[in-house]
Write a structure and sequence with these properties.
ATP-binding, ligase, 178 residues, nucleotide-binding, six-stranded mixed beta sheet, 4 helices, alpha/beta
């Protein structure tokens, strides 16, 4: 059972994110996508885990489309059990649990990830991820035998002054926000 502070913090961050105006959101998305593109170019990452955005998350669909035109391998989560596996991003997308869209399941073995771009609801004092409370990303990274570079994205930074995370919560190498 999660501690109340974490749950309350999650709720307040979601409220803050839902309250961003459309124009502001459009602008913030553009700025963040540009920063991500620059990071990917400089880091020379080839195998990249992205996500298919929900309404309060950074809309990285333009980034996905741009990367697919280059020689990058774009992967996204495919929910499976208590976590997910990664699949190659391809259309069409289908709406699944929690309103999350996914491509079809595929059984190939992806290459080692260089970079993972992960949406957050908030971060705590030690920059560990506060997500939606399902623990899917935590379990996924815990089960990897290596650690790719992890970037958290968020439209506006929602950071707690307290440590709310558990030892299994993932931590970012970088946070890109507006």
């Amino acid at each position: 059972m999660e501690n109340n502070h974490k749950g309350d913090f999650r709720k307040s961050c979601i409220k803050k994110l839902e309250f961003i105006g459309l124009f502001s959101k459009y602008y913030k998305n553009k700025v963040i996508v540009k920063k991500l593109e620059k990071f990917i170019k400089v880091s020379e990452s080839k195998n990249i885990l992205l996500y298919i955005p929900l309404g309060i998350e950074v809309d990285i669909k333009p980034l996905i489309l741009n990367l697919r035109k280059t020689k990058k391998n774009v992967y996204v989560p495919f929910m499976q059990g208590d976590s997910f596996k990664i699949v190659k991003y391809r259309l069409p997308l289908y709406k699944k649990r929690f309103g999350i869209k996914e491509p079809n399941n595929s059984s190939f073995k992806p290459r080692k990830l260089d970079l993972a771009i992960v949406p957050v609801v908030g971060v705590d004092a030690v920059y560990k991820r506060i997500g939606y409370g399902k623990g899917m990303y935590d379990r996924f990274f815990d089960r990897l035998s290596y650690k790719p570079t992890i970037i958290f994205t968020q439209l506006v930074l929602c950071k707690s002054e307290k440590v709310l995370s558990d030892n299994y919560d993932i931590q970012a190498d970088y946070i890109i926000t507006n």
